[in-house]
Amino acid sequence: MLARSEAGGSAAAVLAGIAGLYVAQSVIGGLTWTALPAIMRDQGVPLDRIGLVSLIALPWAIKFLWSPAVERYRLPAGGGNRSGNIVLAGGLVSIAGLIAIGMIGPAAFIPVFACLTIVAFAAATVDIACDGYAVQALAKKHHGWGNAAQVGGAYLGSAIGAGLFLVLAERAGWTMAIWSMAGILVLLGIPFLLLVSRIQPHDPGGHRPSLLAALARSEIRRGLAAAALYVIAQKASLVMLGPFMVDAGFDLATLGMLNGIGGMTVGLGAALAGGGLVRVLGIRAVLALALCLQAACLGLFAAHAATQMLPGPLLVAVAVASSSGVMALGFVALYAQFMRWSDPRQAGVDFTLFQCMDALVSMGGGTLAGIVANAFGYGWFFAGAAAVATAAVPLVIAIADRD
């Protein structure tokens, strides 16, 4: 049973509040980067325009630039906490944006793109406040559960935004599908707004949140190094997994079902398991375990590329385990570590820096992965990725906290 949090309310209630926001953010992400491109293509939008949808991710990669201003508003010098104000304002902007998109229609690319960019800025800003609130509100022993809510919420939200939305769009039309997503955002935001009043007012202490204050701390520099190292070792190579499976003979419909239903089930389960394992084994052990498991999966991909040794069902099982299960397990532990290294006086700034490093390295690493795989083939590529994951284990052990 979860104990009471440092904010004065039960940890279970706090987790429910932040989980709702994390699911909501991923509903927007799944709708934007998975469902929308498919619908736009169905409406005859050219591929070059559809490719520009990826630029809507930019606010998530650069949100550290305005995170100090958000934190200074969220934690005013005179005391109190305005997390609820930020969540409410950002939520209203996101909902209004979705309502407008529902009225516009998917074929009108520029207006839809503009609205989704505004929604992305609003959602990224809410994420800053939500992360800062989570660091303040949850006791250290509950950080693993907090990040299980974050990572598990991402899988669940993506399933709603990318899966349920497409079903609704097919059966009820674009407008009703978009407006249904807006209604879901309302429902998901209510628990957090009801919980905000229960958070304990922070001690002002005269601290002014800033990027310079963050970068001056050794914990932040360690965290940025850990983020870059872990993303390269655990995540960057997986951008080639989809093309690898297609070239292995799997059709898109099969992969879509596996990534949707299988990925959500395995990812959500692994996120919850990760929260418990962080509590029992500690952060360092779970990070090392996830890297070892990922190295094993990547090694199997390399072996299959060279010998075609794995039967189809087993290859699919390893792919889902790698891209959903192992990823969720490891990132629950990594984000729990980020919470430990964040200063509660400006947690939104510190945690956002870590997330932006994750996003930037993911983009750069994914680009490099394509170049390497194209030049050397899947076998050598995945073998090299397995070696990188293995080599990262002692480095992560040296950087991360034991418990």
Q: Quick one: biggest sheet?
A: none
Query: Can you tell me the CATH class of the largest domain?
Result: Mainly Alpha
Radius of gyration: 21 Å
Number of helices: 15
Q: Indicate the percent of residues in helices.
A: over 70%
Give, in order, the helices and strands: HHHHHHHHHHHHHHH
What is the number of E strands? 0
Name the CATH homologous superfamily of the largest domain.
MFS general substrate transporter like domains
Terminal Cα span: 20 Å
CATH architecture of the largest domain: Up-down Bundle
Shape: globular
CATH topology of the largest domain: Growth Hormone, Chain: A
Mean pLDDT: 83
Taken as a percent bin, the fraction of beta residues is under 5%
**Structural class of the helices, strands and pairings?**
mainly alpha
Q: Compute the number of structural domains.
A: 2
